[in-house]
Amino acid sequence: MRNLKLVMEYEGTNYHGFQRQINSKLTIQEILEEKLFVLTEEEIKITASGRTDAGVHAKGQVINFFTNSNIPVERFPLALNSMLPEDIAIKKAEEVPLEFHSRYSAKSKVYSYNILNSLTPSPFFRNFTYFLPRTLDLEKMRQGSTYLLGEHDFIAFRSAGSSVKRTIRHIYRLEIREKEEQLIELEVEANGFLYNMVRIIVGTLVQVGMGKMAPEAVKEILESRDRRKAGQTAPAKGLVLQEVKYFS
Amino acid sequence: MRNLKLVMEYEGTNYHGFQRQINSKLTIQEILEEKLFVLTEEEIKITASGRTDAGVHAKGQVINFFTNSNIPVERFPLALNSMLPEDIAIKKAEEVPLEFHSRYSAKSKVYSYNILNSLTPSPFFRNFTYFLPRTLDLEKMRQGSTYLLGEHDFIAFRSAGSSVKRTIRHIYRLEIREKEEQLIELEVEANGFLYNMVRIIVGTLVQVGMGKMAPEAVKEILESRDRRKAGQTAPAKGLVLQEVKYFS
């Protein structure tokens, strides 16, 4: 038996998230497992680094699975890409040790969040950005973000509906930059994320950027451990799972 | 009566091109004229800087139209964007002299063409790039492109189906660069373009990049005035009308 690791890119717009669901809604996991069955003739169950919600995208989602197939690993991307819909693609495949687990072996994850900060919407970016036609003070957003760096209990930045008990996470970096004119990108790396954590961080920092909240309020929200004090959950479509890093 | 000029952005994927058609296929012109009718209660006929084919995009298409409406010009983008589908947007509106004509007053046009030069396809770029998983020698493509600069008869780089008599055009610049990793952008500015001219130029330079044609062959094709000697017409989805420039 071999353990294979795949790196995936997908546009989440047309899917009900990554994770297979009990009802019949279309998910990315379901499609990939179906194509793996066609390719290997095995009923493969994949494990992902984490689920992504409906509308959330990935440039570097990582999954792994066990197989008895002897198809050379380097053949998987081409073979699967020829069967997958155009909004899902396999970027890389490699054989990994049997103990590798795409979730538990992860050292950190990198997410980016894109805001279209212009007066008019953009057809080009419509599925990949949160359209926000308000003046944003990026410097204040950066000030507010500094309180989130390091190890904290992020329970105030978590949506209900999660069963995870431990709510302490470590944010290694959080960068806010103007990627191109009117396109603001927030990039955050942490050892793990709570449910909707990045989107609530964005929703909160946007309040700071619009001057509706002081940068220092971010510290108070964190300490309050109260979800109601943080900003709204920013729209799914701005979020991209960029990379999952592993202990090599 | 006022003459209004609008700058538009659109993703061409879901349309049968810009220009209104006799049959009932959905075009961008048709949708915009319909929304202008709702807004102004006038049967407005717009004039564009040029048509774009099915699948071709625009970041800076320019149109103009005459109206007796006294809606302030600065209200047009917001009002129209609230009615237009998400893949079409108005970026700017201004009143121009009555003699302004979006096509005849144009000094030059800028097109870009994007090639995804990677081994695996990309869900993110699938509607905006020509996926070409072959090794491309950009330096050779640049060498080949130099023969196209200046004033030439570009009839060898024109598709059949055009009634335009004069086939001499002046290319002011043609740049080929790596925009991001594996994303190659060709940008070309000219005083005008023949039907499919950019896409045939790309199809030809790609032959040069793959080593199937020498850079000097571009000169020979130009001089041959024979469409059959040039490369294939590259796919529509890689093409973007970036900007239309006007005198003054």
Describe what is shown at a glance:
Two copies of one chain form a homodimer. The first copy, chain A, is α+β, with helices and mostly antiparallel strands.
What attributes characterize this protein structure?
homodimer; 248 residues; alpha+beta; Alpha-Beta Plaits; 2 domains; 20% helix; 31% strand
Topology at a glance:
Two copies of one chain form a homodimer.
Chain A (H helix, E strand, L loop, with lengths): L1 E9 L17 H13 L6 E2 L8 E11 L8 H6 L6 E9 L9 E11 L13 E2 L6 H9 L3 E4 L14 E13 L2 E8 L6 H13 L7 H8 L14 E8 L2
Parallel strand pairs in A: 3-10, 5-6
Antiparallel strand pairs in A: 1-3, 1-4, 2-3, 5-9, 5-10, 7-8, 8-9
Helix pairs in contact in A: 3-4
- Residues in helices of chain A, as a percent range: 10-25%
Contiguous helical run count of chain A: 5
Secondary-structure element string of chain A: EHEEHEEEHEEEHHE
State the separation between the terminal residues of chain A, measured CA to CA: 21 Å
Mean pLDDT reading of chain A:
96
Number of domains of chain A: 2
CATH domain fold name of the largest domain in chain A: Alpha-Beta Plaits
Task: Name the CATH homologous superfamily of the largest domain in chain A.
Answer: Pseudouridine synthase I, catalytic domain, C-terminal subdomain
Number of strands of chain A: 10
